[in-house]
Specification:
Length: 136
C-alpha cells in the first residue's frame, strides 16, 4: 500500500487530525544527513522551484554554496540538507537547523550570507516555514 493510500485509511495515526487542511506525503531523498536540521531548536523547511530560465543545476549550485558557508552563521546547525521531491521532481525541499527564528533572520544580514541568499533567491521561487519539532 502506498503512503497516499495509507493516508485514506481510517486507522491512520492521529497526525492527520492535527492538520487544518489537506495532508499529503512527499518523499525526499536528502543527499546529506538530516539529523542536525531535525534535532535543532528550530527547523526551517523550504520548498523551492527553479525560476523560469534557471535549471536544477543552478539551484543545486546556489544551495551548495550556501551550505559550504553555513558553519559561519551564528545559530546555525549545519549541514543544510536538500533533495528533490519524488512525486514532484521539479521541487526541492531544503531542511536547515537554527537556534531560533531570529538567528535565521540575522544570518541574512551578515557576509557572506547576504550575497549567497540573494543568489539563491534570484534562482528560485521559494516558500519557507519554521517548525519546532518534538520527539514523542
Amino acid at each position: 500500500m502506498s503512503s497516499s493510500e495509507r493516508l485514506q485509511q481510517k486507522d491512520y495515526p492521529p497526525l492527520v487530525s492535527l492538520s487544518s487542511g489537506a495532508v499529503s506525503i512527499q518523499h525526499v531523498n536528502f543527499g546529506i544527513d538530516t539529523k542536525s536540521a531535525f534535532t535543532a531548536p528550530v527547523t526551517e523547511i523550504a520548498t523551492m522551484k527553479a525560476k523560469e530560465g534557471h535549471t536544477q543545476v543552478a539551484v543545486d549550485g546556489a544551495i551548495s554554496a550556501l551550505s559550504k558557508n553555513q558553519h559561519l552563521a551564528k545559530g546555525a546547525h549545519p549541514p543544510i540538507s536538500w533533495g528533490l521531491i519524488k512525486e514532484t521532481p521539479e521541487l526541492t525541499i531544503l531542511a536547515i537547523g537554527w537556534d531560533s527564528i531570529e538567528a535565521h533572520a540575522a544570518s541574512y544580514t551578515v557576509a557572506p550570507f547576504d550575497k549567497l541568499v540573494a543568489s539563491l533567491q534570484s534562482t528560485v521561487d521559494a516558500s519557507a516555514k519554521h517548525l519546532v519539532l518534538k520527539r514523542v
